[in-house]
Amino acid sequence: xxxxxxxxxxxxxxxxxxxxxxxxxxxxxxxxxxxxxxxxxxxxxxxxxxxxxxxxxxxxxxxxxxxxxxxxxxxxxxxxxxxxxxxxxxxxxxxxxxxxxxxxxxxxxxxxxxxxxxxxxxxxxxxxxxxxxxxxxxxxxxxxxxxxxxxxxxxxxxxxxxxxxxxxxxxxxxxxxxxxxxxxxxxxxxxxxxxxxxxxxxxxxxxxxxxxxxxxxxxxxxxxxxxxxxxxxxxxxxxxxxxxxxxx
Amino acid sequence: xxxxxxxxxxxxxxxxxxxxxxxxxxxxxxxxxxxxxxxxxxxxxxxxxxxxxxxxxxxxxxxxxxxxxxxxxxxxxxxxxxxxxxxxxxxxxxxxxxxxxxxxxxxxxxxxxxxxxxxxxxxxxxxxxxxxxxxxxxxxxxxxxxxxxxxxxxxxxxxxxxxxxxxxxxxxxxxxxxxxxxxxxxxxxxxxxxxxxxxxxxxxxxxxxxxxxxxxxxxxxxxxxxxxxxxxxxxxxxxxxxxxxxxxxxxxxxxxxxxxxxxxxxxxxxxxxxxxxxxxxxxxxxxxxxxxxxxxxxxxxxxxxxxxxxxxxxxxxxxxxxxxxxxxxxxxxxxx
Lengths: 248, 336
Hints:
The complex is a heterodimer of chains A (248) and B (336). Chain A is mainly α. Chain A has one domain (2-247). Chain A has 12 helices and no strands. In chain A, helix 3 (50-60) packs parallel to helix 4 (62-86) and helix 4 (62-86) packs antiparallel against helix 6. Chain A is globular. Chain B has 336 residues and is an alpha/beta fold. Chain B has 2 domains: 2-220, P-loop containing nucleotide triphosphate hydrolases (Rossmann fold, 3-Layer(aba) Sandwich); 227-297, CATH 3.30.70.600. Chain B is built from 13 helices and 14 strands. Chain A binds chain B through residues 2, 6, 9-10, 12-13, 17, 20-21, 86-91, 93-98, 246-248, and chain B through 11, 45, 48-52, 70-71, 73-74, 78, 80, 82, 84-88, 97-98, 100-103, 145.
């Protein structure tokens, strides 16, 4: 109860701070423009074939991955790095709150902001629908789920990056590097030459999760657990990073 | 309220706090003095549970600060050095957030915040953005934050740091008022101000505790009786000769210098309980030496602090918590 109460108090403050930071509006604006353009591009490519376009937009297009990879670190860079730079982390951690609540609240705030970024894309679908092309609901729902799961993972990675430095820019760069590693290492892992290792990496390939399941309306519980667990590990690591700074 | 036993903190090779033990009783106002880098902030951060000790035990309100960190933190209000605050929030909003975080019940928050703002003279600033406040007002916001949940213990790290004399005085008056309701531990390197507030003083340097006691006790222990300064017209030898009967009663060496234009200044240390001023005036009059100044002076805490820390620096490694003999020469050096 106490944890939940403090989590919600902290979450309120973090969400407010996210909305009060001007740079986030820039991030949102650019991401929305980019998403809009990339959806329009998909429609052009597939000559109005809505189903193909939607699949391309959610996961197969490299364009959308730019947003998924770059936006979370920009939303999370401030969360710990700025508190360390300004010294407010000391105020926060000498209040009667646990590190776990602090990390979860910051994660939830960043993640909620990331999700909010995708709300306008529902509008695209509404517009497409108003022209009579009705996209299949199943694949759409799973595509959103997939984006939410990857978003959670990348937000957790960005938060870890932010907890490791007191420079926001460095936190953003580090977060992006983490995300690229998560995205690319499995791809290169497929060319190791040892079959078992290659199979392992194929299973980890985030890109493939989208092409083979999320974009097709399939929810594979293994995939879902993969994202949830990995995000959990990164958040746990963030808590430890926060604790270890006290030991230095 | 606070009990510290054999506390040591190392950062790698550097020993920031070296085997310190002390207690702070309920209702005391403890002044924690030391030059910058002496280990004050480190000790305070350990007390607040922000840093763990390398060895030793620290208890606040009978609770170990590491094992029962959350409970300890719920019982103390802490003002860190440099007063870090969320600059984008408004004063009332910030205090509201902090009060809730510290476990003040939702329906009691408004009243708690209002009271803290009133106590710290912030009522007219409640809608201002923290980042736009002057240093003095930020300090007040930090103080209001420290006391908003009505903790029994206030720990204030350099609460007057970076303030102009006017603001400093306001903050000190504020703390003096708070001391009626709370046990207070405050650190500073400006001594005159602590002298006026603290019921007890600890002096720390290079991580070691040099002295601990009431300001008056410290003064008495370190210097015995107040010194007497005499300025008379005449050569050094003549003045000292005239004062011979008085000097016989002052076993600790005195200091005499010709200060120009025929004047000689003598500083002497009478034994405790003696006031030799009348005898001095009489002796000089009998010798026919004109007298232009005859003053008895108590050390200020500031002078004591300079002495203690300077001597500790000279023979560093030697603990001074048992006050050693202080020579008159030392005192005269410190005065200048």
